[in-house]
Amino acid sequence: MFLVLEVLLNGLLATGLLERLINHSSRSLKVEWGRAWSVWPDSIQVRALKIRNEEAGGGYWVLAMESAELDLSPLALFRLKVRAEQVNVAGLSFQLHPGDPAARGPDGPGEPPPWELQLKGVQVHGVRELVVGPLRLTGVTDATGELALVPGHRLTVSGARARLGEGELTHQGNVLAHVEGGTADCDIDAKRDAQGRLDVVSGLGGRLQVKTTLPSLTRLQRWVPQIAEAELEGGAGRLEADVRLKEGRFAPDSRLEGSGKPILVPLGLVRVRAPWRLHGEVRAKEDGPSRAGLRLVLSPVKVEGKNGQLLETSEVTVSVEAPAPRLGEPPRDVHAALHVAASNPLDLRVLNDWLAPAIQVDSGQARLVAMSQADAAKGRGKASLELSTDDIRARWGGTRLGARLVLDVDARKLALRRDTVTFAGSRLLLRNASVQKGDKPQVHGWEGTLAFPEATLTLSPAVLSGRFAGSFTNAAPFVALLTDKTGLPQVLSPLLEAKDLELSGTVSLGSSGVKVEKIHVQGEGLELRGKVELSGPSTQAVMLVKVRRLPLGVEVTPERVHLQLLQPSAWYEQKLGERVD
Question: Rounded CA gap, 559 and 578, in Å?
Fold first, then answer.
């Protein structure tokens, strides 16, 4: 009897008939091996065994073994079951690629389950890799557990436990961390749901405890959109994780702790340097789903220039909170908070390296603080960086300027890239501004607000450009800056008298000067369009001014002020190529 079973079993293995029977019975399951034989009816040796199962939505998982020895039940084969009470595996690889969780499986009751796979007492020596989506883990030394599979209907993994040695955690081929050691426990109970899906991730539970070293914190920047394209350096450190999963989601009592050396952010003429600490956890909520939180602390943060330290703040903290995400999916309804401790005063004369010779700062200091407000439930809120100054004194050619400034940056839209910094949604508030040109009477007590829907700082060479819109109390400072003459023509006197102006345009500011284009100013009885370029003492401008609906063309050059009385609109369109309605 045993001899008959031995011959029959080797025949099934050698001819590939058993392989074809299993694969023919299931649309989703595919089993293949390179070589298989039996030296005793209940013992099978297999080389290059691979089991692949397709899921709805494009997902799949693959279990590959370099070699395996199974204590197989030959009689179970006649009941269409591959059953083994003991399995010894060498060289195992596992890949899980989740599909679209919203995808539907095939309609109807699903394919019949003629073949079942039951592997008990599994012992694995040498796990080559564990892959979940874009993440790949190596260094697993051994593993144990049990596996049961009904293709298209159910997958069960019970009591799986793995021990981790030295290895690597990579994301899309890039090394995130070097693994020092740890343990992993895993159970899977995935059943075919009402939509016809066998969702492995939702049936996944377990715990991972691991200690790692990070070659650089910059490897993690891709998950923070504001700094994803920045040129960061350094930040090597350590990270310890205790991650718990339940039904495919990060579960309460999961923790993440880390710290590291200073990370360096080059920004043109300056660079930011700060060591870091990281804390993450998942907390249970009585009135809703568990929430995951991540807190990154940079302390202290130093801004350095070519001549040494410019600014320092004791701490910058970024906190992120969201419902505990599903494994392999980005978090949703994210609530972020920013805190920046008030910095020491920054001497604004350091700006002369950037603005000179167009603008020369004589005195003034600024402080950096941050404010954050958010509605965690609705996922809305505000986070802003505020740079406020005391009285600034500066020179623009022959004009003396003074003001108190507040730059309010929307931190949610702040983004650092390799060569640029963008801060759309920012506001610039000018308070108690003064302008004095030569011996003219000083314009003072002037206020205005500019909003920048678009704003970009190019780092090398340093140029600030953006699109703005805002309001000013009057036009007197503009008039003082636009001409070197001792007085204006009488026809332009309404410019000095206009109140509550609304304006918009684009601006470019750098060491070569200031260029303001597509200017559109409106006030009571006044409308102005044009372009202005200021470089040191030199002023050039082309404007179309409507005073009480009477149009007038104005051209300002270093030598003179020209007034265009005949067909000023056509003259303006010819000068700038800008159509006037």
Answer: 25
Show the tokens assigned to 498.
Answer: 């206009």
Q: Please check whether residue 137 is in contact with residue 130, taking contact to mean a CB–CB distance below 8 angstroms.
A: yes
Residues with Cβ within 8 Å of 570's Cβ and at least 6 positions away in sequence, in order, are none
Contact in structure between 214 and 235 (CB atoms under 8 Å): yes
SS3 at position 369? strand
With b for 16 or more beta-carbon neighbours within 10 A and e for fewer, the 175-207 pattern comes to ebbebbebebbbbbbbebeeebbbbbbbbbbbb
Parallel/antiparallel/unpaired status of strands 116-132 and 81-97: parallel
The tokens describing 94, both together, are 């596992």
Q: Does an H or E element contain 18, and which?
A: helix 17-24
Q: How far apart are CA 150 and CA 191, in angstroms?
A: 9
Provide the 8-state DSSP code for 569: H
Quick check: 309 and 326 in contact, CB under 8 A?
Answer: no
Q: Determine the 3-state secondary structure of 165 from DSSP.
A: coil
Query: Which of 444, 356, 452 minimizes the C-alpha distance to 409?
Result: 452
Query: Minimal CA–CA distance to 484: which of 553, 534, 438?
Result: 438
Highest mean pLDDT among 286-290, 465-469, 480-484: 465-469
- Determine the Cα–Cα distance for residues 178 and 171; give it in Å rounded to an integer: 12
Dihedral (CA of 104, 110, 116, 118) sign: positive
**Measured distance CA(80)–CA(82) in Å, rounded:** 7
The string of pLDDT tens digits covering residues 81-134 is 888 889 999 999 999 887 776 665 555 455 555 678 898 999 999 899 989 888
pLDDT digits (tens, 9 = 90+) for 335-356: 777 788 889 998 998 888 777 7
How many C-alpha atoms does 95 have within 13 Å on its Cβ side? 15
Q: Is the peptide bond before 461 cis (omega within 30 degrees of 0)?
A: yes
The gap from C-alpha 126 to its chain's centroid, in whole angstroms, comes to 36
The tally of CA atoms less than 13 A away on the side-chain side of residue 395 is 9
Q: At what angle do helices 17-24 and 2-15 cross, to 10 degrees?
A: 70
Distance between CA atoms of residues 244 and 185, nearest Å? 9
Q: Average pLDDT, stretch 467-480? A: 78
- Measured CA to CA, the distance from residue 23 to residue 563 in angstroms comes to 89
Q: 3-class DSSP state for residue 410?
A: strand
